[in-house]
Amino acid sequence: MNNRAGSILWNLRQFTTVSPTSTTVRLYPLGFCRPKTVYSNWNPRNLLLNNLENKMQSSIRYLFQDALIFKSEDDDFRTKGISTVTALIVNRLLCPRRLCFDSKQSPVSDNELKKINFHHQASNEDVSTKETKPTPVTFRKLSQECNSLSDVLDKFSEVPTFPSSNYFLAMWTIAKRMSNDQKHFEKQLMFNHPAFIQLCEQMMREAKIMYYDHLLFSLYAIVKLGVPQNTLLVQTLLRVVQERINECDEKCLSVLSTVLEAMEPCKNVEVLRAGLRILVDQQVWKIERVFTLQSVMRSIGKDAPVALKRKLEMKALRELDRFSILNSQHMFEALAAMDHRSIILLNECSKMVIGNIHGCPLKILINIMQSCRDLRYRNLDLFNGIADYVATTFDIWKLKQVLFLLILFENFAFRHTGLMDLFMKKVVDEPGFLNMKSIVSILHVYSSLNHLYRGQTREFLEVMASALTGYLHHISSENLLNAVCSFCLMNHFPLAAINQLLQKDIISELLRSDDKERNVHRLHVLAACLKLDDAPYHKAVDLVLPPLPSARLYPNAKVAAVLNSLLGEGHFAANVQLPHNYHVDFEIRMDSSRSHVLPLSDVNGVTSATDTQRSTYCLDLTHPRGFLAMKVRHLKVMGFHVILVNNWEMEKLQMKDAVTFLKSQIYSTEDPPTADVNFQSTY
């Protein structure tokens, strides 16, 4: 027994001698760091060699050729710290001798054991005297201690520590606290700092051995710090993220989605996105957090397979009961990012947004409206809820924010009279905020939606005309045309702006533009307004413009059938082309009292023009938009009595009811409801 015990003790002493108790590792044999740089207090969870993910559970781990040696005590490893001591490199199995229980094995004497132990303790004391262990560093501590990006790089150059992701995360945290100008200046200093290249090199070396989420956070911070995406650093990290994508858990899935959102398309990004789609397709039902689900939806791309989009939609519908207010607000953006219009999901989220709209930041409401525009989703209750809230809290918002919201409303042809009246009064009272861009935008919104505020229409138009005159020396020809055309739709004719627009060089420039067709159409509108409206201009009469392309005709078969049943053949004409490029669907001639319909050959009758419209009304389906209101105004000037027939109303009526409805419109002596929305001529 003594011999066996002595043999066991001898082997244990050999292990102790070969594997020092100092938790110090030399890294340069694997090429992870510069020579003579070693990491002390290493955390094995931060190290992945050859994609081995097994944990160190034994007290001693040993590798073979050119491997690293780790010593753990109760599996409690402390990370961080760099020192310049020498560590052991082993080129053979770290067991020079088998553990032997043979009684014939020569025992080791107690004196020899004491010598070995004494030698080992002396070595440890010598190492501890030479070694200076730095304080562990985290990115939070770095961001608190440093005031600039250069300060972080200075810390790195003094004593580099693992992982280098801490330095990039600290710099990004500091940069977020800065103003845009300061951030731009600090980034230039960062790129020129001598330690920045070394930090990038160390980041590339450590990419395969750090935590996967640390790697993803680092890549995100690097992109946000402005490191060009085509650099070796970014492309290397992208490749490593691809190689290790199977390590993705739900947290990493969320971070990876955020990274892809922040990056521009390139080959490695698209490959990584394809890998993410495969991963999401496999794990979508395991996702527990709604935030992670929405991050994934935003990052998979608009060209993702429809089956994957529907699977994500079904997952979101299952989680509806767990949606927070913020989740409902962000779902619009998530669906728009992957270009998937889920009416059920949008309707449910709209209800929650409307019910909890008080206190919602205007930025989120604008994002919701932008997403609705991208998804072609129209919800009148949602739009009214947003507009009512903004009108109620109007004084706390900046006018630029409200204008941006009005522009989005105009995209939907949505006209909220209360909000537009408030904004119009604010423009009259405080015209100082107007600049060239806002002038053109405001004119477009109000003319397109055909909105006027009876008490201040003239004052509003005069303020806008005066503001436009101040920018005539700086405005582009196309912006000038847009502004003047908007004024014409509102029956207002500012002298200075029109005189400048009608100059030959401006007209020539507009006709040479890439958007020539649109410019020609607007110039024809200007010419028609100057001829037909009560405007003090006659120059446009001689304006030579290219002809407009033929208008597409959309004849309404049901209206034609009703007119044929009501009036008979030869008493109405279809698809009538009129001067000034106007077109009406049907023309009828009547006596002066409008009680009898006359044959078309009778030239003494009063002409009625019947126009069937679908897309030229506001979203409430009753208020005509700008171009239709101008057309009605001009047709009246040309001697027509205008009857507007809504296609959607005719389609839902039975034939008998449609005849009764149209008969009441034709023989009515009252003006059509558009009479109250026509602007009075002002100049």
What does this 3D model show about the protein?
This protein has 683 residues and is of the alpha+beta class. It has a domain at 557-667: Endonuclease, Chain A. The protein has helices at 2-18, 110-130, 139-145, 149-158, 165-176, 180-192, 194-206, 212-224, 232-243, 250-262, 267-283, 290-299, 306-318, 325-337, 343-355, 362-375, 380-392, 399-411, 417-429, 436-448, 457-469, 477-489, 495-501, 504-511, 516-532, 557-567, 626-637, 647-651, 655-666, and strands at 24-26, 38-40, 60-61, 70-71, 82-83, 573-578, 582-590, 597-598, 606-613, 640-646. The strands form 3 sheets. Strands 6, 7, 8, 9 and 10 form a 5-stranded mixed sheet that branches. It has a 3-stranded antiparallel sheet with strand order 1-2-5, with no helix packed on it.
Q: Overall 3D geometry?
A: elongated
Kindly state the mean pLDDT as a whole number?
A: 78
Radius of gyration: 39 Å
Number of strands: 10
- CATH C-level class of one domain is Alpha Beta
* Number of DSSP helical runs: 29
CATH third-level topology of one domain: Endonuclease, Chain A
Assigned CATH architecture of one domain? 3-Layer(aba) Sandwich
Main sheet record? 5 strands, mixed
Model regions low in confidence, pLDDT < 50 over at least 5 residues:
12-110, 112-132, 674-683
* Share in β-strands: 5-15%
Kindly report how far apart the N and C termini lie.
118 Å
Please give the share of residues in helix. 40-55%
Structural class: alpha+beta
InterPro entries: FAST_kinase, FAST_Leu-rich, RAP
GO biological process, one term: mitochondrial RNA processing
Main location: mitochondrion
Protein name: FAST kinase domains 2
